[in-house]
Amino acid sequence: MITHPAYMVEPWCLRETELNLDVLSQSESVFALSNGHIGWRGNLDEGEPHGLPGTYLNGVYEFRPLPYAEAGYGYPESGQTIINVTNGKLIRLLVDDEPFDLRYGKLHRHERVLDFRTGLLHRTAEWTSPSGRSVRVRSSRLVSFTQRAIAAVSYEVEPLDGDVRIVVQSELVANEQLPLTTRDPRAAAVLESPLAVEHHAAHGPRIRLLHRTEHSGLRVGVSASHVVSGGEKTEMSSESSDNLARFTITTRLRSGQRLRVEKFVAHGWSAIRSAPAVHDQVDAALAAAVSTGWQGLADEQSDYLENFWSRSDVEVDGDAEIQQAARFALFHVLQAGARGEARALPAKGLTGPGYDGHCFWDTETFVLPVLTYTAPQAVEQALRWRYSTLPAARERARQLGLEGAAFPWRTINGDECSGYWPAGTAAFHINADIADAAVRYTKATNDEAFEKEVGLPLLVETARLWRSLGHHDHHGDFHIDGVTGPDEYSAISDDNTYTNLMAQHNLQEAAAVVERHPDLAALLGADDEEAATWRDAATRMTLPYNPELAVHEQSEGFTRHQLWDFAGTGDDEYPLMLHFPYFDLYRKQVAKQADLVLAMCLRGDAFTPEEKAANFAYYERLTVRDSSLSACGQAVMAAETGHMRLAYDYLGEAAMMDLSDLQGNTRDGIHIASLAGTWFALVIGFGGMREYDGLIAFTPRLPEQLGRLAFTVQFRGQRLRVEITGSTATYSLLDGKALEIRHCGERLRVTSDAPESCQVPPIPTGPAPEQPAGRAPARRGRAPGHSEG
Amino acid sequence: MITHPAYMVEPWCLRETELNLDVLSQSESVFALSNGHIGWRGNLDEGEPHGLPGTYLNGVYEFRPLPYAEAGYGYPESGQTIINVTNGKLIRLLVDDEPFDLRYGKLHRHERVLDFRTGLLHRTAEWTSPSGRSVRVRSSRLVSFTQRAIAAVSYEVEPLDGDVRIVVQSELVANEQLPLTTRDPRAAAVLESPLAVEHHAAHGPRIRLLHRTEHSGLRVGVSASHVVSGGEKTEMSSESSDNLARFTITTRLRSGQRLRVEKFVAHGWSAIRSAPAVHDQVDAALAAAVSTGWQGLADEQSDYLENFWSRSDVEVDGDAEIQQAARFALFHVLQAGARGEARALPAKGLTGPGYDGHCFWDTETFVLPVLTYTAPQAVEQALRWRYSTLPAARERARQLGLEGAAFPWRTINGDECSGYWPAGTAAFHINADIADAAVRYTKATNDEAFEKEVGLPLLVETARLWRSLGHHDHHGDFHIDGVTGPDEYSAISDDNTYTNLMAQHNLQEAAAVVERHPDLAALLGADDEEAATWRDAATRMTLPYNPELAVHEQSEGFTRHQLWDFAGTGDDEYPLMLHFPYFDLYRKQVAKQADLVLAMCLRGDAFTPEEKAANFAYYERLTVRDSSLSACGQAVMAAETGHMRLAYDYLGEAAMMDLSDLQGNTRDGIHIASLAGTWFALVIGFGGMREYDGLIAFTPRLPEQLGRLAFTVQFRGQRLRVEITGSTATYSLLDGKALEIRHCGERLRVTSDAPESCQVPPIPTGPAPEQPAGRAPARRGRAPGHSEG
User: Residue limits of the Glycoside hydrolase family 65 central catalytic domain (chains A, B) (predicted)?
Assistant: First the structure.
């Protein structure tokens, strides 16, 4: 956890005003740049000191064995791990005869700024070497949203106290030495030297490395070129070897002179293209980038982001930290998804090796909803990736003795990588989560081509999975037994309510899509008879309920189980999974994360307001939030049940997950889903936004700490701006002619002519729910007194 | 499976009349000799051909890592594996210039006989070498019951067609090369070269090797000496090196002459004694054995067994194969337990490396009951071993957040070795099984010293475990949630009926023992108050029952689950665990082995006759018997519910488990518990023997295929012989003055004056229960037409 204020609170950027080696790894994650294809961690230009060097290409992984003390049928034997590919960030500097290394000499000033509007990461360092020579280094870095293969650096050195001899080495480095991995299973397995060289070259300012992974057989090419200006008696040379290509600039700088190096780095990889093809591909991308130039790339980046913010910005009055965090979150969610293009969207984006670079259910459940209403093309791409893995998912279903498709719990290439089936294979809800994301995207975009090509097969095959996974009992009720819901402190339960409700929706929507496209469905062998069996199962879906307690059960029998001994659990015993066996967690009433509460968030139509209030209060007492995926769902349901202060506190937790490193593992990459949860809490929670039956609906309600909340969402090609104050909600249509919505249950037609203002009714509330001892969310105080620059 | 008749059917021995290389591994297991301390597999004297060479010392293991694809709190990181120690069986033979290897030349005759009355394994081979020289080799082998450290071989060679030059090499070999392990998780991990040499020596006929295991640090010493007679111009020499000590005899034999070598092998090991101490220990044992001589050892062995059979024999008329199998079973059960002396009694005894040489619950549940009534001192020793591991079990309970002691699911040294917690740690019933064995032994022997020293702490600490593992719900009912019962095709269930009933008994008996010995209990901190909480829990123990189906549930919700698709499961898809994921098995109604049925067998007092009949019929339809532990419990309940033909067939399955290799893994060692199950089926099933409230009771009933069943049991130092025919049961007291028993529910006093004969009432029966398609036990035909020698 980052316990001191690490970053300044500003609305449009993240600023670090001093270099703190204690949180270097964390800052490398939060300052990471990505376009969804390339990920550059916020490592210092000169490479060291570092927490964890990281350069990632989406889809580039190596296999690793998954060992078992006792093997079993259907256990995956090989997993996939994201690998640190060739590092193109490196620019080393020699000042006179001493390397620019901030651990030595004296650092007078060090500032880094991640600008959410320009997409650039800026750095300024003023440093005196151990021998007394002072220089200022300024660098800016971008990973281009517009030129997908390109990242670039602008690097400037100037002397601060007279002439100095400068050597700059701009490098490409493969197989960097990585710090040892921890025992924390959430961290990545370190693979030593995953890249085997195929080619290296250096021609003047152009350097290139081409490698291949040993087992996965992926070819990775990186080329760089440079534009140099400034300095006197400048000499340049380049050289290359197996794991290093280097461009060296030697020069003298007088007072007032600057050496400026613009570095363009092109990345490419392929599983099937030949070495010359990959080689040419990166060179071509590089040529285009060099032609665009640094300023051209920076301008394109700004334009891209201006467009993004016009579609997606969230404005918050009354809590500057939340305002910043909301934009930080949206920026990183965009970075993770923008240019993934039919590759997975990993849990950590491309900001670190955490969770082995795997994609889980949280992409579809938390990240894609945000992108659906802000950058829907990214959702289409992410779901096209899922669709591309359908053959593997069908094969996995066969292996498990099931019909349809069983998508993997964690994966990079579409094959299951989960080595612990009770919390992997058994968590079948991911299939409904994928189906749900496809339905949401289709309803929000009316993208019929997508529905026919991608949505229909995804829905049909997941519906088949549910139909074969569940069964009707002899009373006709439909049960799904022995599965694991979102809560990872329960497993292998019967009739998990979240799973059953999501499966119900999946079955219903699959039946509907077959009805809409009977000819296409027929190509998959689906017909009215099959769809009828899905409707039957959905209609008779079991939802366990405890009438004595008057609450729904997370799963059958859950509320009869022993309560976890929260009073006897010390603060230092969280997260519980590191201090108690799964055995004990599974059989008691304790929830790692929102499960039934998330079901109420995503399937609010299945519960009455009274049930929501009772259920929320009951499960609040059991939920310890050892998962970063919990707070946002709790924020939404706290808001819906009228507990605005609590919702506000949960918003704070979701928003500060990485900026304050609340889970203690931001070093391994940021939590994309929790960041998406910031938007969830604000837009779905306080905006009260839902989508039912093809209409978006709002039930706005603000906590008293926030004076105003405004956000823009896209729906069917139209942009709607929503502005909420304590008493009024104003809806403005920014694009399009007219849009029918709901406000607090009433239909409302918004046109481009004029905004519509509506009263926000007062919020009914009951007694505040309680959390387990010591597990209430941090109480948000007034916003910290930093500048709002 | 052994599909051809491999062994002759004879009442007092197991005879193999030809060498069949296809079933060599299996025969090595069934011909294994052991005294519970030393185990010698039935490898050929000359070492090759072999299936699996094996020499074991009880308690000698090596650590091996237990890897996990995803680690978790409380997972054991290190397991234990039984190792193949120094082989003292080896006697190689050179006939003229060719090695005696049965794979070459011509084998005219090969016979092996395991004699249950003498405890000797005899072998005769008549062989012509490739170059045409013929010899007869006769050997006999024993592992002494009376001299615990000693095994011995008598080895004779004689020429069959004129003079021959003979070289005999009698060896001790460490770190034998072993065949590669299979992927079957039930087989042992092969550890290459587990023994590091500390000392080797050869002095005339005496040879010695001393090794140490690397990680477990166990010192293993083996010494051998030889007595040689016969032959002309005999020369003898010996030599030793790191892994080989060899005594070589060179001689010439004329027609009619024989070379005879008597080999005495002393084994010893220690975790704490120094090399010289272990060295001396084996030499001392060797000296005693040499002094006793071969014939002396053989005589002691016969005497020991004569005594054993007088206390334990089971006679069966009408099925010669069962008669043989019953004695084979008792012989091997004795071998496994006789001289274990405060070491574990492994699932395979010391007959092979299967299950890594681990001890499981089946020792207490199946093996110890047999020994309780036939060789009770072995039970005392086995439970003293459990008691010796109480500190580790207490520590494990602490680690799991529980009170009392949590005994390991599988272990050699007392530490948990299970690498799959849903079928390991979660199978807490082992604790009640241990308590049950202690109670049974105490009631059968009145061994008060044992109760005070061993029984009381075992009962108190296991009762504490149950009290902390379970909880009272708000109606006061006591539940034990999230545990795994005997059936390994279910896991992590609430209120497993077997577990709850065994825990109930455990809690009641613990309360009773605290009441009997309050002062001793106080030393453990146990008092009336604590005992009252145990009684409360026992009184309010939940037993799930489905009133609609009118059957008990194996665990809460079990009977509501989907039925396994037996009709759609092919014969080649058994055992199911090798063809279907645990995920699928766990959530459906399918039982690997008797679970509720075993509960009815061990806690018959908890069910009415009608319930037994209904439950038995219900679970018969679900039980596939992929476990060797299933048939005997089903035999018992089939007999009790009047299905005598079915009981007889199940008896056949239990009895022939290893003789016909029904599970296909007899190569890795015989199934001691299934062998014990033969006795279960005969004595508990057909004898109807139960023990309630300190009385043994009989409800005899024979299947029509058996004309007579007679058996002897020990109870409180008295021997009772029971002889049952179709219509009469006769009780004879062989030792002691008088014994009160029950016959068919009526009290009966048997005195030494005269046998008591009673009528056996006719057996009420209902419709025959059905088994899953293809999973009915093999129908026993008339006994095969082999000689009854």
Answer: 327-679
Strands, DSSP E only, in A394-548?
471-472, 478-479, 545-546
Number of helices (H) and strands (E), helices first, in chain B?
19, 35
Tell the CATH superfamily of the B31-285 domain.
Glycoside hydrolase, family 65, N-terminal domain (2.70.98.40)
Interface contact flag, B70 A561, Cβ < 8 Å: no
B488 is catalytic: yes
Dihedrals phi, psi of B504, to nearest 5 degrees: -60, -50
A66 contacts in chain B (CB < 8 Å):
69
Are B577 and A491 an interchain contact pair (Cβ–Cβ within 8 Å)? no
Which phi and psi (to 5°) does residue B95 adopt?
A: -105, 115
Other CB atoms closer than 10 Å to residue A736's CB: what's the count? 16
- Give the span between the Cα atoms of A733 and A723, in whole angstroms: 12
For residue B402, what is the nearest residue in chain A, using CA coordinates?
A584
Q: What fold is seen in the domain A89-310?
A: Beta-galactosidase; Chain A, domain 5 (2.70.98)
Q: What letter does residue A269 receive in the DSSP assignment?
A: E
Answer whether A732's CB lies under 8 Å from A721's CB.
yes
Name the CATH superfamily, with its identifier, for domain A690-764.
Maltose phosphorylase, domain 3 (2.60.420.10)
**Interface residue of A63, A66, A70, A490 to substitute, partner B, most B CBs within 10 Å:** A70
From chain B, pick out residues whose CB is under 8 angstroms from the CB of A479: 560-562
Q: Which of A184, A479, A560, A580 should we substitute to test contact with B (largest number of B Cβ atoms within 10 Å)?
A: A560
| More confident call, A2 vs B695 | B695
CB–CB contacts below 8 A, A to B = 149
pLDDT averaged over 10-residue windows placed end to end, chain A, 789 residues:
76 95 95 98 96 97 91 92 97 95 96 98 97 96 98 97 95 90 57 91 97 96 97 94 98 94 98 95 97 98 97 96 98 95 94 96 97 96 97 97 97 96 97 98 97 98 98 97 98 98 98 98 98 98 98 98 97 96 97 98 97 98 96 97 97 95 93 96 98 92 96 95 95 93 96 95 90 95 44
Catalytic residues of A: 488
Are B188 and B82 spatial neighbours (Cβ–Cβ below 8 Å)?
yes
Task: Provide the 3-class DSSP secondary structure of residue A697.
Answer: strand
Which listed residue (B16, B488, B509, B556) is catalytic? B488
Distance from A512 to chain B by nearest Cα, in Å? 27
Phi, psi dihedral angles at B598 (to 5 degrees): -70, -35
Note the ipTM here: 0.91
Rounded Cα distance between B487 and B492, Å, is: 11
Q: What is the pTM of this model?
A: 0.94
Domains of chain B, by residue range, sit at 31-285, 389-543
Three-class SS state of B568: coil
Beta-carbon separation of A67 and B70 below 8 A: no
Shortest Cα distance from A66 to chain B (angstroms)? 5
Encoded tokens for B401: 């957040």
Which residue do the tokens 């602490």 mark? B398
How far is Cα A74 from Cα A97, in angstroms, rounded to an integer? 59
Provide CB contacts within 8 A for B659, sequence distance 6+: B2, B6, B7, B14, B30, B325, B328
CATH of domain B389-543: 1.50.10.10
How far, in Å, CA of B676 to CA of B98, rounded? 44
Nearest CA to CA, how far is A75 from chain B (Å)? 8
Rounded to an integer, what distance in angstroms lies between the CA atom of residue B120 and that of residue B123?
10
- Do A494 and B587 count as a contact with CB atoms less than 8 A apart? yes
Query: Rounded distance, CA A66 to CA B509, Å?
Result: 45
Taking the C-alpha atoms of residue B84 and residue B94, their distance in angstroms, rounded to an integer, is: 26
Q: Which residues pair with B247 in a beta bridge?
A: B170, B238
Give the residue from chain B lying closest to A472, CA to CA.
B562
